[in-house]
Amino acid sequence: MNLLLPHRFKKIGIVMIPLSFAFWLLMQKGMITLLLTLLFGEVNYFDYRMVNIVVASISFFGFLLGVYCLAFSREKIEDEMVQKIRMDSFQFAALIQLPLIICGFFSLLIPGNTKEQEVIILVLAAALIVFWFGFITRFHYMLHVKLK
Question: Which among 30, 17, 133, 145 has a CA at the least distance from the CA of 82?
Answer without folding.
Answer: 145
